[in-house]
Amino acid sequence: MNYCSNCGASVVLRIPDGDNRERYVCEHCDTIHYQNPKIVAGCIPEWEGRILLCKRAIEPRYGLWTLPAGFMENGETTEQAAMRETEEEAGARVEITGLYGLFSIPHISQVYMLYRGTLVDGAFEAGVESLECRLFDEGDIPWEQLAFPVVKETLKRYFSDRRRGKGFPLQRGEIVKHPRREPAGSPQATASEDRG
Ligand SMILES: [Zn+2]
Asked: Which runs of E-coded beta strand occur in 60-178?
């Protein structure tokens, strides 16, 4: 940030009185510009046992597969955001069946909230941000061509839960940038993530 969005003056990076970390501060109008993590809401759209994925038509990760997900808009709930992103990116209407994944990605200051959802009528078509959308059986998931580690981690846990057949308990985790190792089967399993 270079300029104050309130008055247009230059901002400086300093620790405001009574605070304990650096903020962009406008010394002209005294506005403190707090910056906080963004929430990415998305969906794991299911139809007759298969999962709907989107091939990205935009950077980053052009041409790789992902779950429909995106930044929340002001004034909507996380469920509405997940449904809107699924409609926009995959042309599909979903009924949300539950929150499944809650992942922090601290190094890019994002929080992912991924819901399970069922297609309302089985219809879908690629939106402007997708090259194509396709339903995948577990055995056909393009694991090496997934756009983001958080997507891979979510799908891995999702299919594991489905095989176990005891429901879909909330999955939590942290996606780290440079993992030294990936603890197999750990509930805190991490994966690398270098977006942003
Ligand atoms: Zn200002």
From this structure: 65-66, 69-71, 94-105, 110-119, 130-136, 171-174
